[in-house]
Amino acid sequence: MNALFDRDGPFKGRNARLFVVFTTLYNARAYYPVLAVLFTDLGLRLEQYLLLNAVWAAAIFLFEVPSGALADTIGRKRLLVFSAALMVLEMSVLLFAPKDGGALLFALCLLNRFLSGTSEAAASGADEAIVYESLPEKNRESAWDQVMATAMRWRSAGYLVAMTLGALLYDPSWWNRLTPDALHVDIDVARRLPVLLVLLQAIGCLWIALRFEETAKPSDHAGGRCRAALSLTIRTAAYAFTTKSIAIVLIGGLLIDAVARNFATLNSEYYRLIGIPGWAFGFIGSMVAVTNWFIPSIAAAVNQRFKTTTSLALGGAAAAIALILLIPAWPWAGLLPALFLMTMLGFIGFTVSRFLHGIAESHQRATLLSVKGLAFNLGYGAYSLIFSLILAGIHRRSESAIPAFQQALLWQAAGFAAVLLIFTAATRRVR
Q: Are residues 194 and 289 in the same domain?
């Protein structure tokens, strides 16, 4: 950390210093703790919000491969500037989206999610590449380790601040109870404040992106590189899903990740269901961030003791138990299975990545990891769409006093348990 402020070691060059600030501002977004309720409070139905998540995942899936090739051909700086500009647009669209605006609101939110996914795909890899190649070749790997360690610490600190501040800004009830009427903040104004804060971060990201020093040599063959990258990805995906050991791990991890990640994007809606006030959402998010510090150590210990498939089976069973315990929606106590389910994201990510690193050849490692990321995003998007259809069906047919979201949790737990059992039985036969 001192090296960053002293501009010493790997931080003598501008790119490394800019990268730490860029990745912190880009990723630590104040609306994360209230993501679901932000859209539903604007006037969207919960199933519409889930459809938006599917569009976001689809945008990343479609643009992840070509963006990497473009970064290597037209330049990493241009991709980062493009990504930051899209972030400015996505936040501007959301900031000015009309509350209860019907079809216009949905169209603008759809545009917001598409821009967000495209922005993430454009930044993915380009930010690290522009820094790595700007480091001196001598001891480059150790220098890069130091840059990444510093960036991770800054991101963690930024995430903790953003989660806490975002929820406090979104729900001004705590402020209005402490201050006289003249200083009260209107709820509709407060609900735009986290978005406004992230818009200011986006402008900061754009300014930083413009100051990066380019490291790639632009080429006129971007189209050929994109086709080559797409072809390599398709070949690697075919290899991964026709190799039984890899396919079992990827599909098993994908099933658990999709359900856990879908809930992570809905957690604020669940917190509201179990009676937790909005201003506390950020503190809960901070608890999750602190808990995640310990997940890699736990995952490493489990994976060292058991085979990868056994570790995934344990993760699947744990996720199924958490999903079942979510159904009663116990006031406040329902927070425990919710937090536990979200820790499965880190556990599964560690387990699958560890396996792929161990089995991949050097020349295919990056592409195989890219295939894993693409598959997981596709799985998440597909599951968001399925969950939105379940919710829509419940809304149309249900006359129960039980909230539709809580009923959907019951269907989710039953469906996940059934799919997990079928998958486990099928994989036993093919071994």
A: no
Over 332-384, what HEC string results? CCCHHHHHHHHHHHHHHHHHHHHHHHHHCCHHHHHHHHHHHHHHHHHHHHHHH
CA distance 146 to 140: 10
Confidence of residue 195 (pLDDT cuts 50, 70, 90): very high
Which of 98-112, 357-371, 373-387, 415-429 shows the lowest mean pLDDT across its residues?
357-371
Q: How far apart are CA 48 and CA 389, in angstroms?
A: 9
Beta-carbon contacts of residue 348 (< 8 Å; ≥ 6 apart): 253, 256, 257, 260, 312, 315
pLDDT value at residue 48: 92
Residue 13: pLDDT over 90: no
**Mean pLDDT, rounded, for 105-124:** 93
Q: Left if phi > 0, otherwise alpha if psi is -120 to 50, otherwise beta: which for 286? A: alpha
Token pair 């295919």 is found at: 364
Counting residues of the chain whose pLDDT is more than 90, the rounded percentage is 41
Do 81 and 210 meet the contact criterion of CB atoms below 8 Å apart?
A: yes
Closest CA to 278 of 150, 204, 148, 176: 176
0.85 exceeded by the pTM?
no
From 220, 249, 277, the end of a domain falls on 220
Contact 429, 293 (CB under 8 A): no
Q: State the pLDDT at residue 431.
A: 52
User: What span, in angstroms and rounded, lies between the C-alpha atoms of 81 and 206?
Assistant: 6
Provide the token pair at 86.
């899209």
Residue 339 belongs to domain spanning:
223-431
**Which CATH number characterizes residue 161's domain?**
1.20.1250.20
Is 201 in the same domain as 291? no
Task: Mark whether 392 and 252 lie in a shared domain.
Answer: yes
Q: Quick check: 32 and 163 in contact, CB under 8 A?
A: yes
Both 213 and 240 in one domain: the answer is no
Total domains in the fold of the chain: 2
Give the E-state strand segments of 255-354 in sequence order. Answer: none
Best CA proximity match to 337, nearest among 276, 390, 267: 267
- Residues sharing a CB contact under 8 Å with residue 227, sequence separation 6 or more, in sequence order: none
